[in-house]
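User:
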Amino acid sequence: MRLPRPVVRQLTRGVVRPLLSPRFPLALRRPLLDATGRVVPLPRGTRRSRGTLGGVPTERVVPPGAVGPHQVLYVHGGGYQTGSPTSHRALAAYLSRAAAAPVHLPIYRLAPEHPYPAAMDDVIAAYRALRDAGHPAQRIAVAGDSAGGGLVMALILRLRAAGEELPGSIGLISPWLDLDLGSPLLQANAATDAMLDPSWLPNAVTKYRGPANPAELRPLSSDLAGLPPVHVIAGSDEILLGDSDELVARIREAGGLVEYLRADGMWHAYPVFAGMLREADEAVAALGAAIRRDCGGGHAPRVAVVGAGFGGIGLGMALRAAGWTEPDELTILDRADGVGGVWRANTYPGAACDVPSHLYSFAGEPGTEWTRRFASQPEILRYLERLAREHGLTEHLRLGTEVTEARWDEARSVWRLSLTGGDSLEADVLVPACGQLSRPVRPAIPGLDRFPGPVFHSAEWDHGVDLTGMRVAVIGTGASAIQFVPAIADGVAAMTVFQRSAPHVIPKPDRAYGGRRPGNRAGARALWNAFFELGTLGLTSVRAAGMPFRIASAALRRRQVPDPALRARVTPDHPIGCKRILISSDYYPTLARPHVDLVTEPIIEVTATGVRTADRTEHAADVIILGTGFATTEFVTPMKVFGAGGQELSERWRDGASAHLGIAVPGFPNLFLLYGPNTNLGSGSIVHVLECQIGYVRQAVDLLRSGVRTLTVRPEVAARYDAEIQQRLARTVWTGCRNWYRTASGRIVNNWPGTMREYAHRTKHFEVSEYEAGA
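Assistant: Predicted structure:
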């Protein structure tokens, strides 16, 4: 649901800001402000419960894995008159996830019904109740925003005055500390703050403080020496910025430890939009990581991700948002010199996605790069590069580095990675995100290695070869070939396309995009999702649902291939969907051009001057381009992965790869695969599958952060799951022909036999009972 900063700024100014204005009655402002808090989705699996702390009603918010043992007491803002756990629930949930600790939100009494010291008394009662429940002060963090930040500082001053032990960490988001309203920035930033108007503040002070002015309400005038670590977040555009600036300066003068995130271009309390706004997610992640360091008694488990494509970037984004902000906590390795994975490697002419761009992108990160319905390779690469840059992943990337071996050290419960160049790396969690289409296959054709002219694979396109006026031989008619064949046809003198098996091709409903509103993107995504789910049913359980695709494929051949002889050669001999269905509206017309020849005779050898087929015809060629696909069934190869007892993963998979939910393998602790066995889609967006897996893996590492040391899927769980999947796959269309989804023995190791919706449901919650957990 993440939105661009300008959109959230406008929502803040147009929706939230009026609810804080004293021009409206409190009886209306309070419920409406709470309603805004219900708009932001919580992290998946978040649990909420109501109780009391010291007699104060309190809401407890706990996402998966946020089990402490440290605790967070969060004091919401709202000008001392509005706000509640409901308005701040999303912020609390994302902070809980990042801090790996439960967050308690006291429902303190509000002014004007309950002026000072009512709110202050409630907050200190809640804190003391946590202490009385057995939580050491060092294991408690107190945090708050705006007026809640002022209450947090008042709490600290009251505890110190009483001689009580102070909490282990203090978090302040846009704290309101100067109730005398003396900062010149109140007026200087009045035009830029999207949340607050300085003219409202005197009314709030009068209703809350009244004539009282005790020392605990004047933290900027108090002795700030000897405080626990303080972490301050503020926006450069907010009217209360002066309060944060002065507090930070005063703590530093007193020799205290303070971290200050002063975000350019941001308004008051912007982190309340965590879950909607990237800058808010980053701020909350940083605060959570700081709390975890101060109070959690340790660091997050170190995660090594192998691959910087969609999977690696997506997981990196999720872990950064969950508090993995230190470079040594998260490392993303890739053998290439940049991010992008297959979308960096495949630069052949015409390279584009065959899934509409609005669906082939992360749900919370709609691409601003898309100029067409089916995004081109350069646009997808720019999209991934932008996400890596905007989400702070640059400092976590280790590019130009290949992992040659990963070995589980049972004595220390860590993964030891051997890297090219002789370097090594240790990690607590290993996530191979290598993909299924990353290793090009070069066919074993006699004489191919002796051909004197250029020979290259489509995934390793040689842009130094000028094809103008050349006789080009194309071997293969898969998803890449049907894109680059039309793209290069105009410039070549002659082209011979060698086809082993005719693919099913359906029209590509591509079009250019103009300006697109977020609502349009969401609607397009929903419609395309439904279309592909219908396609999945046609491939798996409801064969009749595939009828429209058969009709579309046959109609395209009739319309675009008038020559009966050529049409016969491009007519598939297998059920639609048994091999990958291809999408193109210009492939068939290209084959019908006079200088393009389609050959279906088997190739027997490559000679010095061309390609010879079984009918003894030699087809002259100056250049050979291989569109022969990828080694899809070997997964993590060539990396060697050794699990418990020294067992090697590819050896374990000798009879065909399998993994529980396509993610976890018995005997390989703290190993989680992205785009692993049986997670490819015959119809749909792999980005959706990756998002499901990323959420699942994040829950697993949250558990490891909370004190569990190792997680290994139980053998019986994995075996039961594999038996179910193989039984369902046996009834699908993919058993009806030879395809890249199957091993030589016929086992289908790539494809998932259900819908995207079903996979999302099955990976929504990390079931600890399915794993052996080591302490």
